[in-house]
Design brief:
- The complex is a heterodimer of chains A (132) and B (116).
- Chain A is 28% helix and 30% strand.
- With 132 residues, chain A is an alpha+beta fold.
- Chain A has a single domain, classed as 6-pyruvoyl tetrahydropterin synthase/QueD (Tetrahydropterin Synthase, Chain A).
- In chain A, strands 1-2-3-4 form a 4-stranded antiparallel sheet.
- In chain A, strand 3 and strand 4 form a beta hairpin.
- The longest helix of chain A is centred in the middle third of the chain and has 13 residues.
- The radius of gyration of chain A is 15 Å and the shape is elongated.
- Chain B is an alpha+beta fold.
- Chain B has a single domain, classed as 2-Layer Sandwich (Tetrahydropterin Synthase, Chain A).
- Chain B has 2 helices and 5 strands; from the N terminus they run ββαβαββ.
- Classes of the chains: A alpha+beta (132), B alpha+beta (116).
- At the A-B interface, helix 4 and strand 4 of A face strand 1 of B.
């Protein structure tokens, strides 16, 4: 088994809040991340690919078109369709990236999406849970 | 879904030969759990941070593992035995079986990994 790990970066703003909850409830659950003005991160994405790693020609273009261009520089809650009803937690962003790319990298196979939100926290998703 | 949080702390220890080591330890704590469909989170990172501060930082930061903690009275610590202790302390404090792995690095060149 050989795997390729490829890293990308994008910057985006978000607020952790459910539109169907009161501001007080959002503050109680998400703390300062619920500030309605939003805040931003320089996200790092690490994609792990298996199977046909030398078929990665064009991977950068696929990732740019499907992930980086739609997310980089935007306010996720307000400007990115995939987050209209989904709180853009690190967990949900990782699942969004997985769902966007998993069917697009053949003949390679996507086996992991790691999303680094700050130097102190990250998530890693392997495609095993359904997206809400 | 794995979720990882990082913490640094400073602690010293005396090995079995009597040599004293001091390090800036880097700890990475990884949980493996389902994403709560209501919140979109595996765990509130603030809660995880509080557990790490209470179970690790408050016990070990700026302390001697031998002299200032009760865990190494009858044996000299090693990075490996310290990592096993940190795993056990965090595992007992977190919801059942949520802890997946810790990585404990005494220096940039060495990492001890304990996985369930």
């Amino acid at each position: 088994m050989i795997r390729v790990i490829r890293r990308y970066e994008f910057s985006a703003a978000h607020v952790l809040a459910r539109p169907d909850w009161s501001e007080a409830r959002n503050r109680a659950v998400y703390g300062k991340c619920a500030n309605p003005s939003g805040h931003g991160h320089n996200y790092r994405v690490e994609l792990t690919l298996e199977g046909a790693p030398d078929a990665g020609d064009g991977l950068d273009a696929i990732v740019r078109e499907r992930v980086l261009d739609p997310l980089d520089g935007y306010f996720l809650n307000r400007e990115v369709g995939g987050f209209a009803g989904v709180v853009p937690t690190a967990e949900n962003i990782a699942r969004h990236i997985w769902d966007t790319l998993a069917g697009a990298v053949a003949p390679a196979r996507l086996s992991g999406v790691r999303l680094v939100e700050t130097s102190n926290n990250s998530v890693e998703y392997f495609g095993s849970e359904p997206t809400p | 879904m794995l979720i990882t949080r990082r913490l640094e702390f400073s602690a010293s220890y005396r090995d079995r030969k009597g040599a004293t080591h001091g390090h800036n330890w880097e700890l990475e704590v990884t949980l493996d759990g389902p994403v709560n469909p209501e919140t979109g989170m595996v765990i509130d990172l603030k809660e995880l941070k509080e557990v790490m501060e209470r179970e690790v930082e408050a016990r070990f930061d700026h302390r001697s593992l031998n002299d200032d903690t009760p865990y190494f009275r009858d044996r000299a610590p090693t990075p490996e035995s310290f990592a096993e202790l940190v795993f056990a302390l965090l595992d007992a404090a977190l919801p059942t079986r949520l802890l997946h792995r810790i990585r404990l690095s005494p220096t940039h060149d060495v990492t001890i990994e304990v996985q369930r």
